[in-house]
Amino acid sequence: MQDFVIIAGKKYRKGYTTGSCAAAASKAAAAMLLRGGILESIEIDTPAGIRLNLPVTDVTVGEDVAKCCVVKDGGDDPDVTTGLKIYAEVRKRKQEGIFVSAGQGIGRVTQPGLKVEVGSPAINPVPMKMIRKEVGEVLKEGEGVDILLSVPGGEEVAKMTYNPRLGIEGGISILGTKGIVEPMSEEAWKESLALELDMLSAKGRDTVVMVFGNYGEDFVENILQIPTEGVVKISNFVGYMLEAASSRGFKQVLLAGHMGKLIKVAAGIFHTHSRVADARMEILCAYAALEGADRNTVEAIYSCNTTDAAARIIRQKGLEGIYRRVVEQVSSRCERYVFQRLQVGSVLFNEDNALLCMDEKAAGILQKIKEGMGCKGQSI
User: Which band of pLDDT confidence, cut at 50, 70 and 90, is reported for residue 111?
Assistant: First the structure.
């Protein structure tokens, strides 16, 4: 992939996700099986709007089955899955449709709280949608295929990821919300994020919306209805970006995040990567106890692997007051972090992109943003 990002004056090559690899290998194998010929490369679309032309290797084609692989390339991002071969074996079936299963090296979800049901292969919804779209372009009406994905060596590589903590056993996950991997050199990445603040400041802005990543950006744009031109992704660097905003003269910050990130900030953790700090359940347990949860409920929350799983218990036990405590504490912690030089309002959303709670400061900042940008938006 010949595409780059410029970070702190240096070129960093982008890569592509395991999801893109799986979609490409599936499409190539289906094309060779059903249309004939041997392919050396295949083109696919990605949710990022970038069309990829990926090399296809290890091709075998028979009368009823075709198999090939696409090698994962994370670009200049330090990604442990780079170099893995993502295989797709495609067989004809009598029934119309596309049926995807997973074999060697792909994990299986064993506990609730993820976007994939318990017992299912760890193939996230966006990659699954990509596979169905790309293979669907090859199939004619009435045709059907079975697709078996596999990743030799995936089980060993998965031990170097957070899959075991998430209850994903037996291999890696097939991931990617955009299909593209952007390099994440930490210091250079922080400098790049700060440059976005510079650009907003140069436009005369004194208020900024901060989100952690793609999910937050989608939530802010689609649910809060704020144009993304005023939104800055902060990755895990909450403290750094708050200080950067303060030093550039910003007055207000609207911080929007999923529980998995905001719960850490509520406890004064300002670098939210799981390898730096992962006390999500301990913090949630403390808030549950403050909200009046009994010991059994606290223990149930503590045993969860994800905040989404914990949210189900919170809903069942009527403990939604936790969310108000979290957003108010996040705002308070953030303001103290920058010695009250910023007013911070916090917004919490869930795995379904639904608003859980925002504090009064967030509501006021949101109203100001919409008035300033001419956004009509929905009433919150």
Answer: confident
